[in-house]
């Protein structure tokens, strides 16, 4: 999965929770409290998802396209299947955490008949439309589908602060809520299978633009011999404080109250000085020019005295022609 607070580790890790004797019973039948689980995909995130369920006492079968990824899990009591068909045949719940939407279909299409009647939880990062397509495909094959967006890095899974967004079948979410809770807080967003993906990617868009802005600033000060670590020490507290303003921006956008008093105007928010300083420092202006372009579109339309939040209208107006 994509990180939300820190880069993922270079190799899969087991959860911090000790593996109990119950987790070594993967060969036994599942129970209502500990349904049998199969996890397809043992990347950094998939391995931790599987390990957390194993530690919680769920009979766990795992499969990965590349051999050798299951060694640690197998030593802790998991069964390593030699094929996806073998993996799902032993499961009440199938967890999918693969590379992308195409790899999900490459893995599941040949075994669709084996999945009929099974609860399928897809935690692969996909677009909303891809999630909806998988839900429709699942319904065609009699598979009960729930989609998820993981708002955590692998190290957080099973610990405070971990959250996964879900959408799709309310029956699957209700039936498997206790199992899902082992990974962290579970937030159900409704029956639209694409909703979890939409919110996941929307939040990540804010993260990546913020990271790009920070790295742009680091490149600027590097021209004066300032290291990125030194710069981060000054930038991080300021950026963290600025997130306190998100709620106010959201209220302004929902009310479309861009002309309300007390806002920083678009004229004042002009970033041409930052663009120029970036060029003078010899760094690319792309990151800040993107924001400047959004500002300019609204100013050119006559809204320079209105609040900065009005760039939302530039973002939602993909035609660049109509401005509310």
Short description:
With 324 residues, this protein is an alpha/beta fold. Helices cover 44% and strands 11% of the residues. The chain has helices at 44-55, 71-75, 84-89, 101-108, 112-115, 128-140, 170-175, 177-180, 195-222, 228-242, 246-255, 272-280, 286-300, 311-316, and strands at 37-40, 60-63, 79-80, 93-96, 119-122, 144-150, 163-168, 185-188.
Give your account of this protein's structure:
Strands 3-2-1-4-5-6-7-8 form an 8-stranded mixed sheet, with helices on both faces. Helix content is 44%, strand content 11%. The two termini are 37 Å apart. It has helices at 44-55, 71-75, 84-89, 101-108, 112-115, 128-140, 170-175, 177-180, 195-222, 228-242, 246-255, 272-280, 286-300, 311-316, and strands spanning 37-40, 60-63, 79-80, 93-96, 119-122, 144-150, 163-168, 185-188. The protein is built from 14 helices and 8 strands. The chain has 324 residues and is of the alpha/beta class. Strand 1, helix 1 (44-55) and strand 2 (60-63) form a beta-alpha-beta unit. Helix 9 crosses helix 10. The model is unreliable at 1-28 (pLDDT under 50).
């Amino acid at each position: 999965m994509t990180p939300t607070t820190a880069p993922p580790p270079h190799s899969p890790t087991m959860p911090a929770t000790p593996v109990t004797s119950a987790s070594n019973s993967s060969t036994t039948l599942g129970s209502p409290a500990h349904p049998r689980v199969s996890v397809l995909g043992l990347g950094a995130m998939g391995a931790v998802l599987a390990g957390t369920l194993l530690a919680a006492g769920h009979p766990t079968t795992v499969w990965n396209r590349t051999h050798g990824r299951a060694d640690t899990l197998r030593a802790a009591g998991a069964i390593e299947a030699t094929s996806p068909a073998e993996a799902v045949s032993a499961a009440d719940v199938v967890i999918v955490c693969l590379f992308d939407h195409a790899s999900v279909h490459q893995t599941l299409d040949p075994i669709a008949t084996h999945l009929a009647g099974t609860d399928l939880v897809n935690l692969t990062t996909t677009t909303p439309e891809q999630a909806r397509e998988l839900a429709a495909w699942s319904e065609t094959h009699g598979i009960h589908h729930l989609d998820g967006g993981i708002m955590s890095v692998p190290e957080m899974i099973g610990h405070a602060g971990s959250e996964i967004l879900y959408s799709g079948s309310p029956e699957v979410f209700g039936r498997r809520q206790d199992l899902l809770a082992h990974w962290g807080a579970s937030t159900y967003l409704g029956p639209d299978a694409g909703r979890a993906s939409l919110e996941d990617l929307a939040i990540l868009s804010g993260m990546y633009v913020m990271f790009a802005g920070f790295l742009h600033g680091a490149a600027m000060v590097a021209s004066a011999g300032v290291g990125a670590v030194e710069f981060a020490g000054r930038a991080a507290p300021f950026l963290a404080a600025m997130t306190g303003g998100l709620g106010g921006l959201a209220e302004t956008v929902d009310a479309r109250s861009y002309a309300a008093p007390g806002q920083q105007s678009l004229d004042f928010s002009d970033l041409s000085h930052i663009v120029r300083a970036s060029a003078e420092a010899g760094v690319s202006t792309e990151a800040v020019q993107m924001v400047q372009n959004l500002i300019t579109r609204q100013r050119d339309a006559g809204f320079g005295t209105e609040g900065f939040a009005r760039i939302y209208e530039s973002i939602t107006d993909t035609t660049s022609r109509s401005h509310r």
